[in-house]
Design goal:
The protein has 295 residues and is α+β, with helices and mostly antiparallel strands. It folds into 2 domains: 169 residues, Jelly Rolls, CATH 2.60.120; 102 residues, Homeodomain-like (Arc Repressor Mutant, subunit A), CATH 1.10.10. Helix content is 51%, strand content 17%. It contains 13 helices and 9 strands. The strands form 2 sheets. A 5-stranded antiparallel sheet has the order 1-8-3-6-9. The protein has a 4-stranded antiparallel sheet with strand order 2-7-4-5, covered by helices on one side.
């Protein structure tokens, strides 16, 4: 994220003429209090963190989206590696389409009505995306990053179109979330935040379903049902995915052996680690390390 200025405002992280900027932030260090003069859409793709806004802390987990409007101070407490996609933009980047978009139901509530009442309610609404929606939104962010980096013919137009699509999709999700059934879903999802952070912080240990369920104040059986429904993976599938993701990062460090890496992600059986790695990463740990050395 951009370097924080003394007055806590961050500079626009692109050329002055570029009014839309997509970023992918990855790290495990806290982000200090800051504010900006543009609109920010943030999407949590991996890990978990705590967002501080209006002196209130909100736990965020994969699939969460929130909007920060201009001149609002906020910060992140990050205890484990987290990946956040950001779309930063000035409204006039969309030209006349901005006037149409901001008047649409859902988008109007998300960008104008909800922010207006934040000072009164002392809280911020978080969009909690269901697994299918989260996958779609993450893919859209990746496409926007690709267009931005490659800058092929007409990328400026495509960039604006993709931002309009993103806003429309989030507006639809907002309307859905405000329904009674989605409000119940939101409450259940919040229960998983502590369990997910526990997983991130204890990958090198034996993780038992019973202990994770206790973190969410649920029975083991209901915890597994809710976990699958919310994240689209079983607890074991999620833990394996996080373990192999961390193993990939560790394999890029020359000083660690593959056996040490397996132990660092909580797997003491080297043969099992190699099989699981190949299943999820498409190659063996040794092959992965060799590929990284080529770049």
């Amino acid at each position: 994220m951009s370097e924080i200025e003394q007055n806590s405002y961050i500079e626009w992280p692109a050329e002055p003429g570029d009014l839309i900027k997509v970023m992918c932030w990855s790290g495990d260090q806290p982000v200090q209090t800051h504010k900006h003069k543009f609109i920010e859409i943030a999407f949590i793709a991996h890990g978990s963190c705590t967002h501080n806004y209006l002196a209130s802390d909100v736990k965020l987990i994969p699939g969460d989206v929130f909007i920060i409007t201009p001149h609002e101070e906020h910060s992140y407490k990050i205890e484990a590696k987290t990946i956040i996609y950001n779309c930063l933009f000035y409204p006039h980047a969309l030209g006349e389409d901005w006037n149409k978009l901001k008047d649409m139901r859902g988008i109007h509530d998300l960008l104008i009505v909800e922010p207006f009442y934040r000072l009164e309610t002392k809280q911020q609404e978080i969009l909690h995306l269901e697994p299918a929606d989260a996958t779609y939104i993450e893919d859209l962010f990746k496409k926007m990053l690709e267009e931005q980096e490659e800058q092929k013919l007409g990328f400026e137009i495509i960039h604006k179109c993709n931002l309009s699509i993103l806003l429309c999709l989030l507006g639809r999700i907002w309307v859905k979330q405000m329904s009674g059934s989605a409000a119940l879903y939101k409450g259940k999802r919040t229960l998983l935040a502590e369990a997910l952070q526990y997983i991130e912080n204890n990958l090198d240990s034996s993780l038992k379903i019973e202990d994770l369920a206790l973190k969410a104040y649920l029975s083991p059986s209901y915890f597994c049902i809710l976990f699958k429904k919310t994240l689209g993976l079983t607890p074991i599938e999620y833990i394996n995915k996080i373990r192999i993701s961390k193993a990939c990062r560790l394999l890029e460090k020359e000083e660690l052996t593959i056996s040490q890496i397996a132990e660092a992600v909580g797997i003491n059986d080297l043969n099992y680690f190699s099989r699981l790695f190949k299943l999820l990463a498409g190659c063996t740990p040794s092959e992965y390390r060799k590929k990284k050395r080529l770049y």
